[in-house]
């Protein structure tokens, strides 16, 4: 590929005291691609995602974003205000538990509109129009715009969280087990939606999952983690069909291919 | 005592109660409060922490405002104290008497005569002028608190001027009520930098805070915060372009003095549900009644309360 990535991660490490969270992770993400991060529980997926998305401060490494032209910005040395601005404009973060990613005390419309207001939107009518549009795009009936998130099902809450992130037109979205707590049919619908949104919007995404089926369905590329380290990465189909690392072989063997 | 800058060497000192220091607080505490005030004036709208002292009053009685007043008052001051616009409530009377006793100051009910006005809830209707100080008693200084309970987060939001959450609150207001229904403690943006809680004043008074010639000081005793709006500072009430800020309007003029364009309180006139609307600012109302009386023959504002 001659094109440059939009995210370049080098040597990112984060420990919790003496316990390793993630260690020496390298990763490139290109515009519009979906990358899956897979691995068993405790392998460091969430830790890595939190470092990349600005929720955790890594101990070492470099996280560089390129959202315009050749302008690389080192995320870790940006001022806090620049960093937070990036986090709510160019980046998105969808949490596993929608209750952590939503404001439960305000309506669905306000949840979706918050990012717009955070960057200075001052026209109620237009904020509402954008909220309606995004609710529809994530297949939530616009008539529910004034309902509170707790009145929504788990799948709807997750879609609301996605709308709340996408409203600002981010270029890269992090998702930590976005289909985690959902039952199978709801999961399938959400995956389908994510695939379509990524295609339609040219959105790049890094998705954490321990479900290789999810990785195969959504991600062009995949990265396998174990004990905080990346043990293998490459094109998803290749990796699943012809795993090189014994751990990946074990993972791939343990799922029935669809 | 030895600091010539302290205004305690005036003859008025003689009239103060010898059991207390001048204006009740010790000089060290007053200096600490003044340092906080100077910082507050230098950074308009920013909440400055201060070591709030115990006062001989319960917190709900405006201990923050009293500490500010005690720290800036001098024997040459003329003090007015209002509570909901009235000079004659128990709270206003006792604070006024307190300072008359411990600071030996003259007191007044006339806005125009006062150099220092301590208030709970209202900005006087009579326009303030240069040299006057308005001290607000504030119960809840943090405008973001109801939306964000974590102090570390609200502090960061102020530091980075991240006020999207405030708009979220207004959005919810419009969504629920079809308009911005917040009618008191209506959030303002000070000098386009800090969002500030104007204390429980009705939003009717927000425009009076904008570019006021007077110095406005805010003291929150329990929450240990002081903030300020220096003279001629911009104070903008937050709103949406399509739901602009509006002050309350009243259908009828004041039943006592006939003023309109002033803030009115509803008062019950009998036990049959009779009621009327009168100026909340008792001094302003009395002045207007007296002025009318001068031209039409005397009319007692107290007596007017009994009108059918
Ligand atoms: N806040 C924390 N304090 C201490 N240790 C932590 C903390 N968060 C994670 N860890 C440890 O760091 C390692 C990586 O955890 P992490 O949550 O990143 O794994 P994960 O791959 O997301 O796991 P899962 O699939 O269960 O969500 C684990 O050993 C975990 O116990
Ligand atoms: Mg995890
Ligand atoms: Zn009146």
Q: Can you describe what's shown?
A:
The complex is a heterodimer of chains A (258) and B (308). Chain A has 258 residues and is an alpha/beta fold. Chain A has 10 helices and 10 strands. Chain A has a 6-stranded mixed sheet, sandwiched between helices. Chain A has a 4-stranded antiparallel sheet with strand order 2-1-4-5, with helices on one face. In chain A, strand 1 (7-16) and strand 2 (19-29) form a beta hairpin. The longest helix of chain A is centred in the C-terminal third of the chain and has 18 residues, at 184-201. Chain A is globular. Chain A starts with 6 loop residues before the first strand and ends in a 5-residue tail after the last helix. With 308 residues, chain B is an alpha/beta fold. Chain B is built from 8 helices and 12 strands. Chain B has a 7-stranded mixed sheet. In chain B, a hairpin with a 4-residue loop joins strand 8 and strand 9 (225-229). The radius of gyration of chain B is 20 Å and the shape is globular. The termini of chain B are far apart. The model of chain B is unreliable at 1-16 and 297-308 (pLDDT under 50). Classes of the chains: A alpha/beta (258), B alpha/beta (308). Chain A binds chain B through residues 80-81, 84, 103, 106-107, 109-110, 113-115, 117-119, 121-125, 127, 146, and chain B through 156, 160-162, 164-165, 167-168, 171-172, 174-176, 239-243. Residues 45-46, 176 of chain A line the site of magnesium ion.
Write a compact overview of the structure shown.
Chain A is of the alpha/beta class and 258 residues long.
Keywords:
heterodimer, A: about 260 residues, alpha/beta, four-stranded antiparallel beta sheet, 10 helices, globular, B: alpha/beta, 8 helices, 12 strands, disordered N terminus, disordered C terminus, binds adenosine-5'-triphosphate, binds magnesium ion, binds zinc ion
Tally of strands of chain B: 12
Given the structure, what is the number of helices of chain A? 10
Element pattern of chain B in H and E: HEHEHEEEHHEEHEEEEEHH
Number of helices of chain B: 8
Q: Classify the helix fraction of chain A into a percent range.
A: 25-40%
What sort of overall outline of chain A do the alpha carbons produce when their principal axes are compared?
A: globular
The proportion of residues in beta strands of chain A is 25-35%
- Small-molecule binders: adenosine-5'-triphosphate, magnesium ion, zinc ion
Biggest interface: A-B, 21 and 18 residues
> What structural class results from the helix and strand content of chain A?
alpha/beta
Q: Give the overall shape of chain B, derived from the CA principal axes.
A: globular
Rounded to the nearest angstrom, the radius of gyration of chain A is 18 Å
Distance between the termini of chain A: 30 Å
Oligomerization state: heterodimer
Distance between the termini of chain B: 58 Å
Strand fraction band of chain B?
15-25%
Low-confidence sequence ranges of chain B: 1-16, 297-308
Major sheet summary line of chain B: 7 strands, mixed
Radius of gyration of chain B: 20 Å
**Uncertain spans of chain A:** none
């Amino acid at each position: 590929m001659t094109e440059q990535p939009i995210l370049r991660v080098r040597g990112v490490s984060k420990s919790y005291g003496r316990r390793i969270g993630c260690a020496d992770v390298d990763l490139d993400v290109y515009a519009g691609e979906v990358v899956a991060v897979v691995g068993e529980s405790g392998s460091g997926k969430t830790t890595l995602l939190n470092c990349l998305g600005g929720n955790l401060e890594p101990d070492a490494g470099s996280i560089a974003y390129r959202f315009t032209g050749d302008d690389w910005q080192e995320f870790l040395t940006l001022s806090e205000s620049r960093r937070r601005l990036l986090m709510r404009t160019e980046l998105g973060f969808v949490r596993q538990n929608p209750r952590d990613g939503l404001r439960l005390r305000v309506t669905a419309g306000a949840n979706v509109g918050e990012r717009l207001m955070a960057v200075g939107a001052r026209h109620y009518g237009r904020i509402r129009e954008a909220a309606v549009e995004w609710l529809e795009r994530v297949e939530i009936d616009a008539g529910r715009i004034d309902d509170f998130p707790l009145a929504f099902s788990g799948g709807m809450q997750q879609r609301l969280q996605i709308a709340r992130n996408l409203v600002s037109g981010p270029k890269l979205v992090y998702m930590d087990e976005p289909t985690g707590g959902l039952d199978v049919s709801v999961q399938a619908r959400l995956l389908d939606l994510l695939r379509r949104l990524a295609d339609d919007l040219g959105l790049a995404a890094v998705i954490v999952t321990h479900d290789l089926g999810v990785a195969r369905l959504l991600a062009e590329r995949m990265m396998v983690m174990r004990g905080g380290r990346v043990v293998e990465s490459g094109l998803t189909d290749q990796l699943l069909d012809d795993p090189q690392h014994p751990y990946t072989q074990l993972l791939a063997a343990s799922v029935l291919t669809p | 005592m030895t600091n010539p800058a302290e205004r305690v060497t005036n003859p008025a000192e003689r009239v103060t109660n010898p059991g207390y220091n001048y204006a009740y607080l010790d000089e060290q505490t007053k200096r600490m409060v003044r340092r906080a005030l100077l910082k507050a004036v230098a950074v308009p709208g920013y909440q400055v922490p201060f070591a709030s002292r115990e006062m001989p009053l319960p917190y709900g009685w405006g201990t923050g405002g009293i500490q500010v007043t005690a720290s800036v008052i001098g024997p040459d001051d003329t003090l007015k104290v209002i509570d909901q616009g009235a000079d004659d409530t128990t709270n206003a009377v006792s604070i006024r008497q307190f300072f008359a006793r411990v600071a030996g100051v003259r007191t007044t009910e006339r806005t125009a005569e006062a150099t220092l006005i301590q208030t709970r809830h209202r900005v006087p209707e009579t326009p303030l002028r240069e040299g006057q100080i308005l001290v607000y008693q504030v119960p809840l200084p943090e405008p973001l608190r109801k939306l964000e309970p974590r102090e570390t987060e609200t502090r960061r939001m102020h530091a980075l001027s991240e006020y999207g959450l405030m708009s979220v609150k207004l959005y919810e207001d419009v969504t629920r009520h079809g308009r911005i229904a917040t009618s008191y403690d209506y959030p303002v943006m000070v000098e386009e930098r800090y969002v500030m809680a104007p204390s429980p004043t009705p939003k009717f008074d927000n425009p009076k805070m904008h570019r006021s010639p007077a110095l406005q000081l805010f003291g929150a005793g329990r929450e240990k915060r002081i903030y300020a709006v220096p003279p001629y500072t911009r104070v903008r009430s937050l709103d949406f372009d399509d739901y602009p800020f509006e002050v309350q309007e009243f259908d009828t003029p004041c039943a006592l003095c006939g003023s309109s364009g002033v803030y009115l309180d509803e008062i019950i006139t009998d036990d049959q549900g009779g009621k009327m609307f009168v100026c909340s600012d008792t001094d302003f109302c009395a002045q207007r009644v007296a002025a009318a009386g001068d031209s039409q023959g005397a009319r007692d504002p107290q007596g007017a309360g009994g009108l059918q």
